[in-house]
Amino acid sequence: SIQLEMPPAPSAAAGSCALSLGSRFLFGCRVTAAHRFAASPVQPPSPLHQQPHLQPCRQGRRWLRPEFRGVYKPRLSPEAMKEFWRLSGIGPDHSRAKVADQQAEVPPEIKRLYQEALPPIVSQDYRDPIVESLHRAEMMRRRRVINIPEFHVGSILAVSVMDKHAPNKVNRFVGLCILRRHTGLFTTFTLRNMVDQVCVQIEYELYSPSIVSIQLLKLERRLDDNLLYLMDAPHSHCTIPFDMVPEPYSRNDPVPVNRERVRLNPPPWMCKWHLHGYQGIDLEHLYSYLSDKDVAKAIEFSKAYKRYDLLDQYLNRVPVPDADYAFKDIFIQHQELLQHQQQQQQSSKKSEVISKLTGTA
Amino acid sequence: APALSSQLIVAMATAPHTWLRLVPSCRSYSKATRLHKIDYPWKDEPKPHWVRQFEARRVDADLTPENRDWLRQWRLQRVRDAVASSSEAAAAASPLKEPPAARPLWTPRVSQRCGLVGIKLGILPMWYRNGQKVHTTVVQIPDQRVLRWVPPEDLGNYASLREMRPYRLNQSFLPRWLTQQRWGLQLVGAVPADPANFTAQWCGIFKAAGLPPMRKISRFLVSPDASLQPGACLGLHHFRVGDCVDVVARTVNRGFQGVMERHLMEGGPAAHGSTKFHRKMGSAAGGGGPIYRGKRMPGVMGNRFRAARSLPVLRVNTKHRLLFIKGFTPGPPHSYCQIMDSWMLDVRRSLDANPPPMPTYFAEDAPEGGYPEDVYHPDLLPYDQPLELPD
Questions:
Q1: By three-state DSSP, how is residue B205 classified?
Q2: Are B296 and B262 in contact (CB under 8 A)?
Q3: CA of B235, closest CA in chain A: separation in Å?
Q4: The listed CATH number (3.30.230, 3.40.50, 2.30.30, 1.10.3210) that belongs to domain A149-247+256-317
Q5: Which of the 8 DSSP states describes residue B4?
């Protein structure tokens, strides 16, 4: 259990009102987060740090609220504090690699394959564990029918869907994945390509049964979560031949990152690309199109103050225990899926052998 | 299944009751679906409102924490035993109890069965066998028992003594269920919980029926031939796959809203010299006349009982006790809803041809071998089957 220590309180020599004011600014925003995450019961503070319930002041006695009395103040050693910040998953020094350390039981390939297994980032009122477990179970059931490869925004995919009006009843489209949205069975991804000098973007539902196959042609990652700015980029960036040969990749290697910076077309643009923090755009070239005021606004946006905005990080991130649980659940079902695939291969081999022996086609 | 009841009790006993939710609204409804009639906020008050359900929590200082926890576990175990002994599985297993009386037959144009209390959990997308997508609302059916039957003859006495505003009953407009006296009221209790959570008055309602106290009491309009006596168990298989149901629930509370959001009024122009008139109502009446009751004005939006009619049940999950109902139902997740046989005429006529279990599902109605974990509608495509479109 984490030993909690309280930081040193201000000296009691200062006036009573000043003391309470000082304690509010000292303790109000620093220690509450640690108290919420503390696993073990809070130990009572030592008498040195304990404030009296009734603080004498000029108009009589002031009743000090518990948070200023030192009653609930936990004591946290620097090591324990470091451990807390590491486990919380938020903070200015936090990175993805550190979050992955604590989920050592689940292999990293699971998190790459099943990115949509994470619960949605919404208010707790709208989340339900039973519904989320149903989503995960149905996802794995669908994966017994079709192979869904690992892909990221920036990868090139070939998707075949059922189309009753097509000559072979199947419609194949090749494109660059520019967007990947939502979670669970609602997951969708958008492919972009040029068809007869016309830009085409198609959004597919990943778990729709009308998808016959999803083939990964090139596994790649980009610097951004979405590539919507390609709508205002030269068409050469998203022109992919339909007869592209799939490139081999290894699951054990990290996903290659394409660090190219795209030069956008001159304005007008569909969106204010300079205000969304895109790293995949050539910023110098972009700023050359903007006025000084817009450039100042864009630079201020990219000052990276958001890494210190803890509430923003907390609200826009899946809670680590929930993510952990989801991936563990998926890992168990993933192993069952592999067994199911092995059984299918064995039975198909058996049927081949039987058909050869009996001489049937 | 009985094994899950205790888990549900503990889970539901610690779950919060329905609470006020403030959610930003989206204008996704059209004017055609709005109800163009005068209705009053107090019409939707939950009943019984003359009995206080909760009171200030007592802290028994004479008990040590360990003894307090032990007593709580003892109380919960008694609740679990009461639930298990009155469950349908216990009724089927016990050889000493008398078999139920002759079950009534489904009478066309007369019978109206009791409904179920459900808890809306969320939404799950599914696909039909023709490739069409359908959104299903996942509703969990908690432990529930029949509490009381009020026959149609006693409805006047039951209603008049209990209305908070009795002058409403002196008006010419009275609800039809009260004047026709065709159907009676069936009170159903759901979600058994620790008696210490409630007042003695609330627990007394359940004592007469010999049931543990429950968090939710609902009432259904039921025909006398389909009435159930206190203590009867209502289960998941009361509804079958393919039955069309009506889901009645309190809509999402959107808070205090203006007329543009609440009543889809036009408001005023954004520019062109408009002085402080962008989102207002404008005139309230005409020619110096009075403002009539029911004039549409700003106020609290949502938090009203509304019904989604004729929604088919597409899938039943026996492991978690879930009904998958096509479409969307009113209310936020984890809110109570009432599910009953649809009142729509085409559904009632189809039920005459294929009558449901009357008055409710009993263990003797189960098919041989029991139910599988998931029962799908024949038109629905399970996720582990590939789609095969006809040429």
A1: helix
A2: yes
A3: 19
A4: 2.30.30
A5: H
Q: In whole angstroms, what is the distance from residue B138 CA to residue A10 CA?
A: 55
Residues paired with residue B326 on neighbouring β-strands, in sequence order: B136
**Residue A119: closest CA among A106, A109, A132:** A132
CB contact under 8 A, B381 and A144: no
Tally A–B CB contacts below 8 A. 66
Integer-rounded Cα radius of gyration of chain B: 24
Helix (H) or strand (E) holding A54: strand A54-57
Express each pLDDT in A232-256 by its tens digit. 999 999 999 999 999 999 888 999 9
* Domain spans in chain B, listed from the N-terminal domain onward: 78-97+107-161+177-254+300-376
Give the integer Cα–Cα distance in Å for A183 and A204. Answer: 13
SS3 A48: helix
Give the angle subtended at the CA of B319 by the CAs of B142 and A329, to the nearest 5°.
115
Instruction: State whether the Cα torsion A73-A76-A78-A81 is positive or negative.
Output: negative
Q: What is the CA radius of gyration of chain A?
A: 28
Compute the distance between CA of residue A323 and CA of residue A120 in angstroms, rounded to an integer: 10
Q: Where are the domains of chain A?
A: 2-69, 149-247+256-317
In this complex, do B387 and A209 lie within 8 Å of one another by their Cβ atoms? yes
Architecture of B78-97+107-161+177-254+300-376 per CATH?
Answer: Beta Barrel (2.40)
Question: Measured between beta carbons, which residues in chain B are less than 8 angstroms from residue A141?
Answer: 382-384
**pLDDT value at residue B19:** 33
Chain B hits for A186, CB-CB cut-off 8 Å, are 125
What are A144-190's pLDDT values in tens digits?
999 999 999 999 999 999 998 998 899 999 999 999 999 999 999 99
Query: What letter represents residue B158's amino acid?
Result: Y
Q: What are the residue ranges of helices labelled H in chain A?
A: 16-27, 32-37, 66-69, 78-88, 96-101, 108-113, 129-142, 283-287, 292-301, 310-315, 320-358
User: Pick from B122, B382, B386: which is nearest to A128 by CB?
Assistant: B122
With cut-offs at 50, 70 and 90, classify the pLDDT of residue B31: very low
| A142 contacts B383? CB cut-off 8 A | yes
Nearest-10 crossing angle of helices A320-358, A129-142: 30
Residue type (1 letter), A44: P
Least Cα distance to A188 among A211, A162, A168, A219 occurs for A211
Buried b (16+ CB within 10 A) or exposed e, B198-211: beeebbebbeebeb
What is the spatial distance between Cα A333 and Cα A113, in angstroms, rounded to a whole number? Answer: 13
